[in-house]
Amino acid sequence: MKKILIIYYSKNGSTKIMSEKISRGVQSVDNVEPILRTVPEINNGGDINELANKDGVLYATNEDLKNCDGLIIGSPTHFGNMAAPVKSFLDGTTSEWFNGTLCGKPAGVFTSTSSIHGGQETTLITMMIPLLHHGMIILGIPYIDKDLGETTTGGTPYGPSHFAHKNNIDLSEHESKLCFSFGARIAKISKKL
Q1: What integer is the mean pLDDT of 140-167?
Q2: Is pTM beyond 0.90 here?
């Protein structure tokens, strides 16, 4: 059974919903299992030994990285970049980088922003950079996916995105389909590798 690790950070709920749709796409592929994880807030004043967030979603660990066959990371867009909790987690993967833990595994990224010009594509690209340093095989959404050409909300060739206009966390039909097909694509590629 292949395992695709989906790590997300969600402040208002959009990236969480996206991660669940991507997870369903992964799950649609035989013998591939999605593993959903989140990352903790930075300086939240909480117990440093907590294992999960208030919704019971476990925090990602470096051990999760060792045990995965593919990795998908999601973050809201913060000033055209990933949110600090995601960056903090990635900054803690030096040992995995030295050991080649993620090298040769498929990876992808996704994002949500409340502004149509909030930097969705730059966020996706900046999230790819550490994964490239790890030697991962970066996957996006090819234009043969008809939903990418038809969407008037979120969606990019770099990965799924969501436009949360006026804090609307509900994904459009195209955004939902793109998340699902993205998860399925990474799951299928992980089986081929």
Answers
A1: 90
A2: yes
